[in-house]
C-alpha cells in the first residue's frame, strides 16, 4: 500500500471528519413521521422516472439518486449523512463491537496480505498464525500479486460463525508455506483500549469510541481496578469521536449520584427529554478526572459535560470538538441508510456545546485546524469563548456553551509550535506501517527479548527515529521531526511494543511521559 506523504495534512482532516461522522450521538428508532408525501417529493420521483425511461444516453439512476440524497443532506448540517450499502456494513460492525472472522490485524504490503498481529485468543492466534506471516490463498483464491478490492478480501476472511476457511501462509523466517484450517469465530472490536493502575490508588481507563459493548467493557475494567485498590479514576476520552449516547449515559450513571441530571435533548417541536442518574453507581465517590482534547466529540462531550456540570470531577486537557446534535439512523431497503439530525442535546446546566456550522461542512471540520493557527492548543487565553453563553454549576463555577467543553485544567499540546502536524502523524496508520516493515526486516533481533530488555534497547538507539525521519523527508519537507525528537521516539517505541507485546505495552510507554497524566499525578 503506497502512501502519498505530501497529503498527510489532508489525511489528518479527513480522518478527523470520518471519526466524527462514525461517532455521531446515535439514537435509533422507527421512521415514523419522516417526510410526509407532498408535491415536491412526487416531482423528484417523476424526474428520476423521466430520466430512466426517456433520457438519450444510458445512465446509472442509482448513482443519480445517491448524489441527490447527498446534495439534499448537505443543505442541512454536517452530521446528517447518507451511508451507501458498501459502507453501512463496516460502520454497523464497528459500532456493534465484534465481528465474525479469523481475528487478525493485517497490512497490504507489496500486494500481499501481511499479518501485523493475531488478536489475542482469536481463531488465528489459537491456530498458530504469527505476526509477519503472509496470506497467499484463502480457500484456493489467490490473494497476493493482485489488487483485490478491500470488500472482496474481507469476504474471504469473514463468514458465518463456526465456518472453516483454509489459508495458505508463507512464513518468511522459515521460508516455507503452511496450510491452516481456521474455524471462524466472534472477534471483539474493543472500544476500551486498556484499563490499568497508574499507581497504587489511581486507575486509568481509555475509551476509543462508544460502541454497543462500551459500558460493559468499562464496568468490567472498573470492577477489576477497584479490586486492585483504585480510589481515584482517570477516564481518557482523547480522540474519541463519540458513538452511542446511551453508552456514555450508562457510564455517567456509574459516576453520578441518584437523580442527578446527565443530559437532556430538545427536538424541533420543543419536546424535552431528560435523563437522570438512577441506582447506586460503582464510582460515585473518589477523585475523578476526564481527559479530553480537540478531537473528543459527541458522546464524549455528553460524558465530560455531565461530570463537569454536576461538579463531580475535573476535566483536563483542551477544548473538545463541539458536537451537540443527535442523529437517528433510518435504513433503506437496499442496505443503505440515512443518519438524520433529529434533536440537540444539552448538558445539565443547559449548555448547548454545538459549534456553528453556517459556513458549510468543509469549514466546519477544518475549524479544528484553525485552533492550531490561533494558538488555542498552546494557550488557554486564546480560546474564543462567548461571554454571553455563561452557565453556573451547582457549586457556582462558571462554564461556557457554544462550542465544545472547555476544560477545568488546561494542558497545552506537547509538540512545538509550527510542528503540530506531527501530533496527529504519530498516531496515524503511517507509523504502524513503518514499524511493521522494520520488524519484517529485523524481527529476529527482538526475539526472546523481555519487555524490560526491549525498552533498554530502544531507548539506547536513534536508528528507527533516523529511518522514520529519512522516510518522511522524501515526501513531506515541512514536517520537522527533530524538533519533537523525544516525543516521536516515544510513539515509535510504543508502536514497536504494541506489535511485539500487545496493547498494554503500548500504553505502558506512552502514558509514562503523558503531559496530561503528569499534570494530574503531580497534583496529588
Automatic annotation (TrEMBL):
Keyword field contains NAD: no
Annotated Gene Ontology cellular component terms: outer membrane-bounded periplasmic space
Cited Gene3D superfamilies: 2-enoyl-CoA Hydratase, Chain A, domain 1, 2.30.42.10, 3.30.750.44
Segments crossing the lipid bilayer: 7-28
Domain PDZ: from-to ranges: 88-143
Gene Ontology BP annotations: proteolysis; signal transduction
InterPro entries assigned to the protein according to its UniProt record, in alphabetical order: ClpP/crotonase-like_dom_sf, PDZ, PDZ_sf, Peptidase_S41A, Tail-specific_protease
Record GO terms (molecular function): endopeptidase activity; serine-type peptidase activity
Keywords on record: Hydrolase, Membrane, Protease, Serine protease, Transmembrane, Transmembrane helix
Family that this chain belongs to: Belongs to the peptidase S41A family.
Protein name per Swiss-Prot or TrEMBL: Peptidase S41
Amino acid at each position: 500500500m503506497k502512501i502519498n506523504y505530501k497529503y498527510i495534512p489532508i489525511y489528518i482532516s479527513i480522518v478527523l471528519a470520518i471519526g466524527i461522522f462514525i461517532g455521531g450521538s446515535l439514537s435509533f428508532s422507527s421512521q415514523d413521521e419522516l417526510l410526509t408525501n407532498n408535491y415536491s417529493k412526487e416531482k423528484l420521483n417523476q424526474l428520476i422516472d423521466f430520466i430512466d425511461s426517456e433520457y438519450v444516453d444510458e445512465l446509472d439512476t442509482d448513482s443519480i439518486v445517491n448524489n441527490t440524497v447527498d446534495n439534499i443532506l448537505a443543505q442541512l448540517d454536517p452530521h446528517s449523512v447518507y451511508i451507501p450499502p458498501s459502507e453501512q456494513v463496516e460502520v454497523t460492525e464497528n459500532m456493534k463491537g465484534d465481528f465474525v472472522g479469523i481475528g487478525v490485524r493485517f497490512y497490504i504490503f507489496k500486494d500481499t496480505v501481511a499479518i501485523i498481529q493475531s488478536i489475542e485468543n482469536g481463531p488465528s492466534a489459537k491456530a498458530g498464525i504469527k505476526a509477519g506471516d503472509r496470506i497467499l490463498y484463502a480457500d484456493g483464491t489467490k490473494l497476493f500479486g493482485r489488487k483485490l478490492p478491500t470488500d472482496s478480501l474481507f469476504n474471504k476472511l469473514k463468514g458465518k460463525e463456526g465456518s472453516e476457511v483454509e489459508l495458505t501462509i508463507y512464513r518468511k523466517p522459515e521460508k516455507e508455506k503452511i496450510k491452516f484450517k481456521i474455524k471462524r469465530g466472534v472477534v471483539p472490536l474493543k472500544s476500551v483500549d486498556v484499563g490499568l493502575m497508574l499507581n497504587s490508588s489511581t486507575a486509568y481507563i481509555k475509551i476509543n469510541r462508544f460502541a454497543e459493548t462500551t459500558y460493559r467493557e468499562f464496568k468490567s475494567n472498573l470492577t477489576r481496578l477497584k479490586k486492585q485498590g483504585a480510589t481515584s479514576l482517570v477516564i481518557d476520552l482523547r480522540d474519541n469521536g463519540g458513538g452511542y449516547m446511551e453508552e456514555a449515559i450508562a457510564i455517567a450513571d456509574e459516576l453520578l449520584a441518584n437523580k442527578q441530571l446527565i443530559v437532556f435533548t430538545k427536538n424541533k417541536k420543543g419536546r424535552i427529554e431528560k435523563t437522570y442518574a438512577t441506582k447506586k453507581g460503582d464510582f460515585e465517590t473518589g477523585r475523578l478526572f476526564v481527559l479530553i482534547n480537540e478531537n473528543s466529540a459527541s458522546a464524549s462531550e455528553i460524558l465530560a459535560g455531565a461530570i463537569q456540570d454536576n461538579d463531580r470531577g475535573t476535566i483536563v486537557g483542551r477544548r473538545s470538538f463541539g458536537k451537540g446534535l443527535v442523529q437517528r439512523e433510518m435504513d433503506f431497503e437496499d442496505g443503505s441508510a440515512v443518519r438524520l439530525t433529529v434533536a440537540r442535546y444539552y448538558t445539565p446546566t443547559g449548555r448547548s456545546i454545538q459549534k456553528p456550522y453556517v459556513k458549510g461542512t468543509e469549514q466546519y471540520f477544518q475549524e479544528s485546524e484553525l485552533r492550531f493557527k490561533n494558538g488555542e492548543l498552546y494557550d488557554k487565553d486564546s480560546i474564543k469563548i462567548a461571554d454571553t453563553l455563561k452557565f453556573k454549576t451547582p457549586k457556582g463555577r462558571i462554564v461556557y456553551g457554544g462550542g465544545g467543553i472547555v476544560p477545568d485544567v488546561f494542558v497545552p499540546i506537547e509538540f512545538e509550535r509550527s510542528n503540530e502536524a506531527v501530533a496527529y502523524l504519530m498516531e496515524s496508520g503511517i507509523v504502524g506501517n513503518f514499524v511493521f516493515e522494520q520488524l519484517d526486516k529485523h524481527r529476529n533481533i527482538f526475539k526472546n527479548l523481555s519487555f524490560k530488555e526491549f525498552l533498554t534497547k530502544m531507548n539506547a538507539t536513534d536508528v528507527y527515529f533516523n529511518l522514520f525521519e529519512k522516510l518522511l523527508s522524501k515526501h513531506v519537507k515541512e514536517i520537522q521531526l527533530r524538533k519533537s525528537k523525544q516525543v516521536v521516539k516515544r510513539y515509535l517505541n510504543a508502536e514497536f511494543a504494541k506489535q511485539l507485546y500487545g496493547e498494554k505495552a503500548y500504553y505502558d510507554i506512552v502514558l509514562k511521559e503523558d503531559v496530561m497524566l503528569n499534570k494530574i499525578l503531580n497534583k496529588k
